[in-house]
């Protein structure tokens, strides 16, 4: 199962559209995961129409329309991997311990908000992943997204993809 992980797209505030490379990744993915800060419903509709399966949550920049359609936290089991998606996890310091306590029955937690790519493992084995942002690099050198696969009940091949600067 091929996964595409996105967050903090901020379309059309930070970018008018998603980069073409991201749309190509959408087409290849079995599941697209978006960890919030869509900003407008149009991108949700576009991703939902183009994705085989879409799992998403709302972020702090998402208004009432998106909040009506998306949960604050999404939980799914994908081929034996217990996945949770949330926008905010708080400060980087102590993140693993806080998230392990908040998501004890989760194997992988996908989050956003900071626009900073993140890949760590908590003491209880919880994998924390932030794909960064494909449209707003903030203080990062480039915009980014993540891909991964799930096979035989395990998350594998997690890869951070840098996007060319525009």
Automatic annotation (TrEMBL):
SUPFAM superfamilies: Metallo-dependent phosphatases. Pfam families: Metallophos_2. The keyword tRNA processing does not apply. GO terms for molecular function: hydrolase activity; metal ion binding. Residues 1-152 form the Calcineurin-like phosphoesterase domain. Keywords: Metal-binding. Its EC number is 3.1.4.-. The keyword Metal-binding applies. Its cofactor is a divalent metal cation. Belongs to the metallophosphoesterase superfamily. YfcE family. This is Phosphoesterase.
């Amino acid at each position: 199962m091929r996964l595409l992980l996105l967050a903090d797209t901020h379309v059309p505030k930070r970018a008018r559209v998603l980069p073409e490379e991201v749309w190509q990744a959408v087409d290849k993915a079995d599941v697209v995961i978006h960890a919030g800060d869509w900003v407008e419903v149009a991108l949700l509709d576009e991703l939902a129409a183009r994705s085989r399966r879409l799992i998403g949550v709302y972020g702090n920049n998402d208004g009432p329309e998106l909040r009506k359609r998306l949960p604050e936290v999404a939980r799914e089991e994908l081929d034996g991997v217990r996945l949770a998606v949330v926008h905010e996890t708080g400060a980087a310091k102590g993140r693993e311990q806080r998230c392990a306590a908040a998501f004890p029955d989760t194997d992988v937690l996908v989050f956003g908000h900071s626009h900073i790519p993140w890949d760590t493992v908590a003491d209880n084995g919880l994998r924390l992943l932030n794909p960064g942002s494909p449209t707003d690099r903030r203080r990062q050198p480039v915009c980014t997204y993540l891909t991964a696969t799930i096979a035989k009940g395990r998350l594998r091949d997690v890869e951070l993809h840098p996007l060319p600067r525009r």
